[in-house]
Amino acid sequence: MRKEDKAIIIEQLGEKLKEYAHFYLVDVTGMNAEATSSLRRKCFGAEIKMVVVKNTLLHKAFEAAEIDYSPLYGSLKGTTAVFFCNVANAPAKLLKEEGKSGIPALKAAYAEEGFYVGADNLDTLCAIKSKTELIAEVVSLLQSPAKNVISALQSGGQTIHGVLKTLGERPE
After folding, report:
1. Distance, CA of 45 to CA of 57 (rounded, Å)
2. pLDDT, position 161
3. 109-141, pLDDT tens digit by residue?
4. Cα–Cα dist 35/78, whole Å
5. In DSSP terms, which residues pair with 129 in a beta bridge?
6. Dist. CA 31–CA 99, nearest whole Å
7. Which end of the chain is more exposed for a tag (fewer CB within 10 A), N or C?
8. pTM of the full predicted structure?
9. How is residue 25 annotated by DSSP?
10. How far apart are CA 55 and CA 134, in angstroms?
């Protein structure tokens, strides 16, 4: 590969690091063409950008980035695919579903501005809530007290109405 081509790839990787908020380093050693193609389709469906890269080029892209990615340098061994995404837990869920046989396996991840090195962090990464999940949780928490007050007022109003109606119908 020519030096100019390498510089272009490093620049493209740097742009992807800026464009996407989260990324996972995945070991795809031992995957055949059919399995890799199937994984790419599943990534596309989950809005994950899968890129297979040379470790040295990715290392240089990390060095050129504004963020210090040095905790991930040790994970750059073997065949590496990078899963870029904007939802922190989407690749983790995909890897958990697909990685039952051990391929593909998580090497490391950068999610929610934190570093997760090692396959043992997969469950932790699956538990990270996305922005929409957090918003939905906050909205439901805000709605529940209001619903309780409204239902209490409605039931109390019906009770008072029933008592007044009974008193009004009672002969004097």
Report:
1. 27
2. 63
3. 998 888 888 888 888 888 877 777 778 888 877
4. 18
5. none
6. 11
7. C
8. 0.73
9. E
10. 34
Q: Which residues 6+ apart lie within 8 Å of 89 measured at CB? A: 111, 125, 126, 127, 128, 129, 130
The token duo for 11 is 């620049």
pLDDT mean by block of 10 residues, the chain; 172 residues: 86 89 88 87 90 91 89 89 89 83 81 85 80 79 69 60 66 66
- Which pLDDT belongs to residue 21? 87
Looking up tokens 């699956």 gives 126
Question: What angle separates helix 55-64 from helix 3-19, to the nearest 10 degrees?
Answer: 60
DSSP assignments along 63-120, one per residue: HHSSS--GGGGGG--SSEEEEEESSTTHHHHHHHHHGGGS-SEEEEEEETTEEEESGG
- Compute the distance between CA of residue 20 and CA of residue 83 in angstroms, rounded to an integer: 10
Dig out the tokens for 143 from the structure. Answer: 């709605």
